[in-house]
Hints:
mainly beta; Pnp Oxidase, Chain A; three-stranded antiparallel beta sheet; 12 strands
Amino acid sequence: MTKCKRKSIGTHFSSCVQPAFIIGTNNEDGSYEFAPITWVSATNDKDWDYHMTVSMYGTKRTKTNALREKKLSINLVSTDMLRLMDYLGTHKGKNGKKDAIPYEVGRGEVVDVPVLEASRWVYECEVVKTVELGGSTTFFCKIMNIQVDERLDPKDTFDVDISLLDPVIYSSYYYKLGEKLGQIGEMSKDIKD
Ligand SMILES: Cc1cc2nc3c(=O)[nH]c(=O)nc-3n(C[C@H](O)[C@H](O)[C@H](O)COP(=O)(O)O)c2cc1C
């Protein structure tokens, strides 16, 4: 490893290297609402009881819906969905239906939420807790079901070939993934305790 020469740039850069997700919620009239939210991470309550955390700032339909309905879908964005994500994220639901780009919408298999048919990895979630920080709300979402592209066919929880998901990485700009580097434990297996 080469020593990195860093400089301090203050605290106002929110840029975080993250995969991009589109959140699906139900509007009050039963129609669907979708918006990209990239402040998404994971945690767990106890073993195998995984939760996602989703943070939303300001006011937006998706946030109001998630607070009211206590359920949402989290749809991973593959590079072929980039134009759709960009559109959904730069238009507000309160200004009218966001349907200038056609996209197919299905329903969750376990939770009654709208899901994006183009997404290769979909979490169906129930909101179990919210934490406010100023104008932002972080939703702790219990994963009730995960739908994955049939091509993935994972043998275990670590056997997920992300290259098949082809995720968009967002960090102020949009990126795509590079190569697979190796497996967990493989990179340091020669080191004995
Ligand atoms: C790439 C991208 C990432 C975004 N990430 C977030 C986020 O993490 N949290 C958030 O509150 N809004 C985020 N937004 C903004 C919302 O998507 C935006 O406010 C959207 O218009 C809300 O739609 P709605 O009014 O239909 O809910 C993001 C937008 C884009 C384009």
